[in-house]
Amino acid sequence: MAISESQLVWLLAGDQPIPAATLHAIFGPGRVNGATETVVIYARNDHPSLTLTAVKLWTGQDAAGGGFSVALAAQPYLNNSGSINVDTLSYSTATTKAAGIAVNDVPPGYRAAVAVRRTLTGAGTAYPEHNRVILGGTSPI
Amino acid sequence: MSLEWTDVVLADPFDPRGTENAARAIIANIYANGLVDLQYKGGTAKNVPVSASYAPRTGDVVEVVRRNLSSLLVLGPVRTFNATTVEVDSGVSVLYNVEPALVTSANPLVVDPTATKSFRGSDWERDDVYQGAASGATQYGYWRGCYFYGATPQQLSGRRCTRLRIRISRKGEGGVISNVAQYLVGHVHEAQPGGSPLFTTGAHLAGYATRNQPIDLDLPVGWGQALIDGSLKGFGHVRDTTGDYSIAYSKVGDAATGRLTIDWV
Description:
The structure holds two protein chains of two kinds.
Chain A: E1 8-11, E2 30-31, E3 37-45, E4 53-60, E5 69-74, E6 101-103, E7 111-119, E8 126-140
Antiparallel strand pairs in A: 1-3, 3-7, 4-6, 4-8, 5-7
Chain B: H1 5-8, E1 22-30, E2 36-40, E3 43-48, E4 61-66, E5 72-77, E6 85-99, E7 109-111, E8 115-120, E9 123-126, E10 129-132, E11 143-148, E12 161-168, E13 180-187, E14 204-209, E15 215-219, H2 221-229, E16 234-237, E17 246-248, E18 260-264
Antiparallel strand pairs in B: 1-2, 1-4, 2-3, 4-5, 7-18, 8-9, 8-11, 10-11, 10-17, 11-16, 12-15, 12-18, 13-14, 13-16
């Protein structure tokens, strides 16, 4: 069986799950013109044997978010070890898969690290601001 | 692998003598009204309807069924290969509130009322700010003198109040001559409402005020925070006695009457 959507599991540091659509699970509340913040999350391939290939990373942007942006940075996959310097990554605000950031293949049991950056300069107030981080690829059948 | 249409067309769907009820054809033309032209072995068929689940494309090899001797229906395309991979996407929502920017207001922030008015019985009667009632006038009800501040205190949204004071500026006439206890309550109106004021706190004895001697009296810090957060909008007097009868200047009489001084961090 191919890798299913539910087998790409989103995690916070320490392998804590990110509940679907839970407010403030990744970022806390922010203020207009507040400081830029970066949080690293992970997408783990929980398929027992198949590798996710041709992996891309992109965003779903809140159209009402004013000058707000969510950016992504992909690192080579990590397997519960290693570190990421989020200040040296190249960020993108791509909103389509075609324009998304290319990510290394994710073998079964491995995690793709994703740095999510929010910049509140020029943002508008929102209750809440709603963005998405999306990782997609190709799975053998 | 590419297919020649002659490889896939098995029968002439127009042949009334044919024994086949299904056949293969190629989409040759597509009309805006949903019909298509088919190319099949030995000829063409025009204006053929298509199954609603199939969006035809020119050149598709399709399966066609014969519904009767002269009526055809295109079921859909014939698969020419089976995929070995599938696309899989997974997203996570990133939700958070974006609050207004912190302001760099003066500290303490001084807010003078935008209006003053006193309610009694069923009407807003006076611009001066009354408390209690005069002896012999209680049949009209007790006064509810109010100060209104608009939304100005909310410019401190996100800040923490550390002290709140209100200026009581009694007139030189009216009310009990001596020091009068000042009972304040919080209300929820940025401006004078149409009906009676809505008070949402209990009465707080803030201190005492004498005629013609404006004095800043402390109010609960929690009330200051409620002002900043917007759950309280202003203050007024509720005291149903004649012994604490007091009249403070209207905004016209003293621009600083009811002045709020908000300390914050």
